[in-house]
Amino acid sequence: MKEFNDYDRKYPNLVMDILDYFKIESGIDNKSILEFCTIHGKKNGGGVDLVYQPEIVSRICQKLCKKNKLSALRTGSGLGFNDNYGFIIRDKQEWERNYNKLRHYYNSLVYGFEYIYCFYKELVIPLIWEKENGDYSAGTGFKLYGGIVTARHCIEDPKHLSIKGFSAAELRKSQIFVSDNPNLDIAFIDVGRDEDLEVFVDDGTILQDILVMGYPKIPAFTDFLTAEKGTISSKAESRMTPTKGTVAAFGDNYLSGAELMLITARIRGGNSGGPVINEDGSIIGIACQTPYYDEKIGDYDDLGYGIAVPIKYLLEIFRGKNQTIRKNENFFRDYLL
Predict the structure, then answer these.
(1) Is residue 194 predicted with pLDDT exceeding 90?
(2) Is the pTM of this model over 0.90?
């Protein structure tokens, strides 16, 4: 990120170090941004070479204040170098126990969706499926808990399926779990891998900013990762394109018998199965297929909305794992692109 000189990539622990330095339980007097940078500098024969630029650290502190995570105790000094802040660690054991999750959370708040995109982009993968008529289409999945999350119709509809980063031989040994509700468009392919990168999940809230990542169907491309931002509106290096929006609503859909998530970020064919990620950096849902189109009343996408399945339904699959989809031996193919 240019605003922070790529500090999110260069110094992933910096935000946590700032919070730890300004914690109130270790005292609040004589602390400053310049002293923090000096402490974390490199000593030489004539003094200290600063590793962190004080103005960047000052911007981070100001961002944390705007998010109500840090309190300004003394501000207004020249360039902010002598500004002092306060941070309260309410549960030291929880802070230490959940350090990685908290680091990801605070980094997400400070650096925003650019950081979140970079964090998740290697986990979001394209699915290429062959239809009965020989045509090809695209879908999306993401790696989670040693397997692959995707849309149920990406498993049930194609004649053959290939997934980037996974061989046909490995996929044939997997189990495919789905919800007991046939109208919930989510599936989990349990491959049993040991994944190094920790992934975080949480419930979404209305009007929360979100990022949707996936591989929509774009002419002449089968490996085009998109990202779009949006919001939740109610409750009832490959070429990826992200989209941003908000959670517009959660609403009970009487046809699916489940509570689905309405979002303002666009979801197109091929995006199905991709993650919906909130501004805290947690996966809150899975983009799903357009449900129950009726040409008389139109389509949700006519209004610019997308539909996602809340993460709670995926967690129910993990807990139960009581319904499986069985495919023939030749269903999975090697990903050759």
Answers:
(1) no
(2) no
